[in-house]
Design brief:
globular, D-Maltodextrin-Binding Protein, domain 2, 324 residues, alpha/beta, 8-stranded mixed sheet, 12 helices
């Protein structure tokens, strides 16, 4: 066998070490796929598409959102985790999938950051407690009183066991002492449609998908879960004003990439997403949906994943929430 030249070996190593930075500088040279592990048209998906449309224009490359709902977002999460870490598959994933859904599903020792690298927090969304007009309550106080006077008879809808809609209502029940029975559906759209039809009288919903129904008086807004009132519904009190001190809840969406994606690509993607979020047109459309742009560093997103996990673990344990 012909001996390999030491010089050739060193040259090969040098070329390999340069390949990653060069590829990162050229990125992107092909379409980018964005995994959205929720139903098309849901609150998080709508906000994600607004931002990704601007990202596509800025990068001058197609940015294609692919919906992969199922298992409370874990199907999309697993697909992203298995993708090639080259910057051409990224994910826009909600807090529930990254933090407390795995706890509900019994994934012991789960840590989203074992398989994914954070890029940036994208946006936070306002949540609102809604009821069907046929329910004889118009305030949170009246809802709690009615539920106690009719134990086991007042249902609430959710998008599925262990998701945001379920967990926030269980937190509300614990804080208010109300008596409400969980009725899970396959997705937020189906759950809200049932509340609108009067089949189930109450639920928490992202404001973006409930706002039109509230304005058309097909649903009543009892309170918002933000620290301050939202300008979209200035007459609706916060849950804190309604008698639950310290009770706030919002969901958020973060952008992440498969573990091992070149740092230069993560840095470029972070900068481009910040640029898209600061665009007045994008920010205005997000605000109209009850969402707030939240660009930040990868570290900020990593810390948020950890803090949200710790906060919601307490709710899940106390409410004994488990996947069926």
């Amino acid at each position: 066998m012909k001996p390999v030249s030491t010089g050739n070996v060193l040259l090969a190593i040098a070329v390999a070490s340069l390949a990653c930075p060069v590829a990162a500088q050229e990125w992107p040279t092909a379409p980018i796929t964005v995994i959205s592990p929720v139903q098309a048209g849901s609150a998080g998906d709508t906000s994600l598409r607004l931002v990704m449309a601007r990202l596509s224009e800025n990068l001058r490359q197609p940015v294609i959102v692919e919906n992969l709902p199922g298992a409370a977002g874990m199907i999309g999460y697993d697909r992203l985790a298995r993708a090639k870490p080259d910057g051409y598959t990224i994910g826009g994933i909600s807090d529930s999938t990254l933090t407390y859904v795995p706890l509900v599903q019994g994934r012991k020792g789960f840590n989203a950051l074992d398989a994914l690298d954070p890029v940036t927090l994208l946006s936070t969304s306002t949540w609102v407690l809604v009821s069907h007009p046929s329910l004889p309550v118009r305030t949170v106080k009246e809802l709690v009183a009615f539920s106690k006077a009719n134990p086991g008879r007042l249902d609430y809808a959710s998008a599925g066991i262990g998701g945001s809609h379920h967990v926030v209502m269980e937190a509300f029940k614990a804080a208010s002492g109300s008596n409400l029975v969980h009725v899970p559906y396959r997705g937020a759209a189906a759950a809200l449609a049932e509340v609108e039809a009067g089949q189930v009288p109450v639920m928490f919903s992202a404001l973006s998908v409930a706002l039109g129904r509230i304005q058309a008086k097909r649903l009543n807004a009892l309170a918002v879960a933000t620290p301050a009132r939202t300008p979209l519904l200035p007459e609706v009190p916060t849950l804190q004003e309604a008698g639950l001190p310290g009770f706030t809840f919002s969901t958020w969406t973060g952008v992440l990439v498969p573990k091992g994606t070149p740092p230069a690509i993560v840095e470029r993607l972070n900068a481009e997403l910040a640029r898209a979020l600061k665009d007045p047109g994008v920010a205005g459309k997000l605000a109209a949906l009850g969402a707030t742009p939240q660009p930040g560093t990868p570290k900020v997103l990593a810390e948020l994943i950890e803090s949200t996990t710790n906060r919601m673990r307490k709710v899940i344990v106390e409410a004994k929430i488990k996947a069926e």
